[in-house]
Amino acid sequence: MHATLATTNSASRVRQTEQPRTLRFTTVEILILVLFALALIAAAVGPALMRDRSAPTHTTTIKVGEYQTLWEIAKQHPGEGLTTPETVRAIRTLNGMTSGNIVAGQLLMVPVNATSSASVALR
Predict the structure, then answer these.
(1) Collapsing DSSP states into helix, strand and coil, what is residue 37?
(2) What does the DSSP 8-state code read for residue 35?
(3) Backbone conformation region of residue 104, classed left if phi is above 0, alpha if psi is from -120 to 50, else beta
(4) What whole-number distance in Å separates Cα of residue 123 and Cα of residue 119?
């Protein structure tokens, strides 16, 4: 009978000391979770932030002439409010170009100054 009583007491002690499990994170684990969350946010929002804001909304298509360079084309067809280097970048972006190499006869989309295209439309 004494043995049974001891078993009962140890079982009741086990029940008394058992508590619901709670998640406890160390500082390093919390830091890892925060960095992971920031990486997910950056992956979702980053492409929208990196998009070229100077991309022209008005374009026209031109045919590259003999011995013409991308720089010359950018100077002849400046994007509204864009410098020549920015216009070169815009032309490359519009045409999916990875380099500035062009050939005579190639068709390129180039930005059109919105104010000059509006004045042409009114004529």
Answers:
(1) helix
(2) H
(3) beta
(4) 7
How far, in Å, CA of 87 to CA of 58, rounded? 13
SS3 64: coil
Torsion 5-6-8-9 (CA) sign: positive
Report phi then psi at 14, rounded to 5.
-65, -45
Residues 6 or more apart whose CB falls under 8 angstroms from that of 61 comprise 107, 108, 109, 110
Distance between CA atoms of residues 97 and 111, nearest Å:
15
- pLDDT tens digit sequence for 11-51: 555 555 666 777 788 999 999 999 999 998 888 887 766 65
pTM above 0.90, yes or no: no
Q: Residue 115 is encoded by which pair of tokens? A: 């104010």
How many CB atoms lie under 10 A from the CB of residue 103? Answer: 8
> Nearest 10 degrees: CA dihedral of 54, 60, 64, 65?
-120
